[in-house]
Amino acid sequence: MDTHTAPSPSLLGAHHLVHRPASPEAFLLKATAPVRQNFAFSAQLPEEHPLFGDSATRYHDLLFPVESLRQTMLFAARRYFRVPPGWHPVVASGSAAITRLDAWRRGGPPAGIALELGMTPLDVVAGVPRGLDCEAGVFIDGERCGTASARLVFLTQGVYRGHRDLGRRQSEGSGADRDEDRRPAAVPLPEQVGHRDARNVLVGLPGHTGTAGHEELDFPVDARAAAGLRLEADAPGEVPPLLFLEVSRQVGLLATAELRGFVPSYAVLSRWQATFRGFAEPGLPLRCTVREGARPTDGRVGRDAEGRPVVELRLSFLQGSRVVARVSASVLQDC
Questions:
Q1: Cβ distance 283 to 312 under 8 Å?
Q2: What is the pLDDT of residue 183?
Q3: Confidence at residue 228, expressed as pLDDT on a 0 to 100 scale
Q4: pTM exceeding 0.85
């Protein structure tokens, strides 16, 4: 086994990563054949981080394991799968789910988190993958309590710049003017989005669109505030991938309170699944539309296996009329 210990300046802080190679050659050469490889990640859930430690709810959230998975994939791509450092990583899709809520409740001594990861190379040419798939089990204090997954693709710098330029032109051509406002005009209280610090509020109060029975909420997103949260982008001038998950959580709490009367301090984003269709540009207005997804035919709130209320949501992130990401999510009321 190859063990990597990092007192990292990243969002993850000090953590440990263990590679479990399938052959002795992989251990000796510090590189792998382009086949599935297994890893184990462990760290302490942060209590003092300006974002991860700023919670007005009773729960750890999904941000830390999802960011842990993304950064572990980036490290493994360079060190073990020989992806050239000049190739640009792009998150194509991601997901996370809570499978046992009790383990996510905050309280007591600092909790430890571990991920058991399996990474599969994609589109291998001359032994080098153009992408990686990763699936992970999530454990808190030794109890399996969640899942996470992601797909990364790696683009040459020329292809990457071409995609960025095309997306920017499409957004500007569909009505996305340059963003001169630093924050939305009206913002929710931090406790309404699960925080205590107002600097962690990334969305404004929503407008209402849609028709009766199919109401849609339209939230302005303050993408520039991501810099203050220390969210890490894959390149200068990019919107950090983790922003989409944090915004999904914030609008999920607001939307379920608005549409179904959920209490934000007892609500938790229990499932998140995203596909990305382009790059969001930091200098252009970003908004997130939310509508309720599948629901019981009688119009009542759905229930999970434990009988707790749960609402399915459909989210779209847009710049102008260009959709940059689509998300399906579940928000659960712990009562």
A1: no
A2: 55
A3: 59
A4: yes
Element (H, E) at 176: none
Q: Give yes or no: residues 8 and 135 share one domain.
A: yes
Eight-class DSSP state of 127 = T
Answer yes or no: is 165 within a domain: no
Q: Give me the percent of the chain exceeding a pLDDT of 90.
A: 57
Considering the domain architecture, whether residues 216 and 115 belong to the same structural domain is answered as no
Which amino acid would we find at residue 44? Q
DSSP label at 96?
E
Q: Indicate whether 94 and 213 sit together in one domain.
A: no
Amino acid at site 65: P
For residue 299, is it within any domain?
Answer: yes
- Of 24-38, 88-102, 167-181, minimum mean pLDDT range: 24-38
Tell me, letter by letter, the H, E, C secondary structure of 280-330: CCCCCCEEEEEEECCCCCCCCCEECCCCCEEEEEEEEEEECCEEEEEEEEE
Phi, then psi, of 87 in degrees rounded to 5: -80, 140
If we measure between CA atoms, which residue out of 189, 74, 81 comes closest to residue 127?
A: 81
Residue range of the domain that includes 13:
1-155
Hunting for tokens 């200098």 — which residue is that? Answer: 283
Look at residue 197 and give its three-state secondary structure.
Answer: coil
Query: In the predicted model, is pLDDT for residue 297 greater than 80?
Result: no
What span, in angstroms and rounded, lies between the C-alpha atoms of 320 and 176? Answer: 4
Tell me, what CATH number does 68's domain have? Answer: 3.10.129.10
Could you tell me if residue 161 is inside a domain? no
The two three-digit tokens of residue 27, written as one number: 């251990």
Helices (H) and strands (E) in the chain, counts: 4, 14
Same-domain check for residues 130 and 258: no
Rounded distance between C-alpha atoms, residue 262 and residue 192, angstroms: 11
Give bridge partners of residue 293 from the DSSP assignment.
Answer: none
On the CB side of 320, CA atoms within 13 Å amount to 19
Give the dihedral sign, CA 171/176/179/183. negative
